[in-house]
Amino acid sequence: MIRSSYVYGPVPSRRLGLSLGVSIIPRKTCTIDCVYCQCGRTTRRTLKREPFYPVEDIVEQVRQAVATHELDFITFSGEGEPTLNSDIGRLIRRFKAEFRVPVAVITNSTLMTDPAVRRALYRADLVVPSLDAADQATFRKVNRAHQGLVVEDIIQSLVTFRRHFRGRMWLEVMLVRDVNDAPAHVVKLRQAAWRIRPDRVHLNTVVRPPAESWAGPLDRDDLEQVRVLFGPGTEIADSALRRAKRRTGQDPERAIYELVRNRPVTFADMERSLGIDPRLLKPALGRLLKQRRVRRVRFWGKEFFEPPGA
Ligand code: SF4
Description:
This protein is of the alpha/beta class.
């Protein structure tokens, strides 16, 4: 099976600079089904690793994108779990050898219990694993995990991975109001993070339309309290966002389209991520809306933009 496009970006990202997003799994093929997922509900929940696509097709598309952009990272991400692709280690090796661009992997951590997955990811420069639950009941609630997954095993596998991994590791924690934000659970999450010893912890909350409409965000004060509890090296995703560097010289319409293809964004997100003058951004967005290449959606009183049919 050949996909029309493996490459999302290049997308300016607040943390990764100019990052080429590469998706190597079919849409919403995942080990879990997070209530906050911005890509909707998981349509195929599985633990079975497969090659999915020919490696050469993926490499060729990345080759074309790399030739025309100065990238800070090639990032395995996408609308599902990238480590389900059994060729991920081979792809990391190929990208690093051929393109000489640092490689990042964004993973939900659930397959890190598999030594073959850990071995594959040792070759990456940056691994961004997520951990939203530190006990099995909360894991079931927030991530609606495949029944074969045990959260304590996942935490232990991250501890093992960190011990041997020479690259950078940023742990992502997504907090959902009334689902995984109870103080006793947040303390357990902190203990898990301390055991894992990532280089940084990023705290996040629901800021884009989630799979379940009842999955709501924490407010700023609550997030700040959690940040203080986690201690040094912990950031709230928004504060990282504010530090984003401004980039210029982009075609606004193209830049907006590439950004919303990746995830729903607000106008403020666009300004911050793209660094384009709002006087150029607004009319460009207006044109995309008129051409129906982008549409508006509302979530928690905020207006987001996404591609039609997303
Ligand atoms: S947020 Fe990520 S890990 Fe969770 S269901 Fe969506 S794609 Fe899977």
